[in-house]
């Protein structure tokens, strides 16, 4: 589908739509991530209770410096494909992206 091969830290996405990376993200996540907890120990919601990317206002890239990799709900990559998951949002999630459900990591708040 898309030919863009820039990395998360690559050029600004000003000429791309907010959903430019969606075609690179699978709608399902590997069991190893689907059954994992977030970086703050939050359990993943059952599949039928997860928000869609559209419902969560998921966008490709950070917002005001915030990104999934610094979110309490983010599940780190566990299968080596450099893509993680979320306890709140369906499908694969990139650490460099952001959604409206973003919440700061508990670890970072406590310091």
UniProtKB/TrEMBL annotation:
<protein>
    <recommendedName>
        <fullName>High potential iron-sulfur proteins family profile domain-containing protein</fullName>
    </recommendedName>
</protein>
<dbReference type="Pfam" id="PF01355">
    <property type="entry name" value="HIPIP"/>
</dbReference>
<keyword id="KW-0411">Iron-sulfur</keyword>
<keyword id="KW-0249">Electron transport</keyword>
<feature type="region of interest" description="Disordered">
    <location>
        <begin position="1"/>
        <end position="21"/>
    </location>
</feature>
<dbReference type="GO" id="GO:0051539">
    <property type="term" value="F:4 iron, 4 sulfur cluster binding"/>
</dbReference>
<keyword id="KW-0004">4Fe-4S</keyword>
<dbReference type="GO" id="GO:0009055">
    <property type="term" value="F:electron transfer activity"/>
</dbReference>
<dbReference type="GO" id="GO:0046872">
    <property type="term" value="F:metal ion binding"/>
</dbReference>
<dbReference type="GO" id="GO:0019646">
    <property type="term" value="P:aerobic electron transport chain"/>
</dbReference>
<keyword id="KW-0479">Metal-binding</keyword>
<keyword id="KW-0408">Iron</keyword>
<feature type="compositionally biased region" description="Basic and acidic residues">
    <location>
        <begin position="12"/>
        <end position="21"/>
    </location>
</feature>
<keyword id="KW-0813">Transport</keyword>
<dbReference type="InterPro" id="IPR036369">
    <property type="entry name" value="HIPIP_sf"/>
</dbReference>
<dbReference type="InterPro" id="IPR000170">
    <property type="entry name" value="High_potential_FeS_prot"/>
</dbReference>
<feature type="domain" description="High potential iron-sulfur proteins family profile">
    <location>
        <begin position="31"/>
        <end position="107"/>
    </location>
</feature>
